[in-house]
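Write out the 3D structure for:
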Amino acid sequence: MTDKRHGVFGGTSSADGNASVELLITHGVGLHARPSVVFTRLAKSFPCTIEIEVNRSGLWLNAKSIVKVMGARIRKGSTLKIRAHGLRAEEAIAVLEALFVNDFAEERPHVRGA
C-alpha cells in the first residue's frame, strides 16, 4: 500500500501476531513533544511489544518509552517504521498509523487572508 498524500509506504501483518507499517513524517515539526506523548500513550494502551525504527537505521527503539521516542529526534521528512508483536499487534499498528494519517488530530492555525 502506498499513500503519498499521508506518507504511508506500506504495512504488513501475519497470522503469528506480527504487524508493521512504514510512514513518512509529514508533520511540520516532526514528532515533537506533544505528538510524542500522544504516540507513546497510545502505544502503551496495547499489550503487544511495539518498536520504531527511524530512517532505516537498523536500530529499533521501544515505542512505549517517551525518552526513546523523544531522543530519536524524528523530524519532518524522516521515515518511521513501526512494528508490533504479540496480542492485538495488527490493531495497534492500524491505530498508530491512523494517528499519523490524521496528523495527530492537531488543528492547523487559520491564516487570515488566505
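Helices lie at 33-44, 66-71, 89-101.
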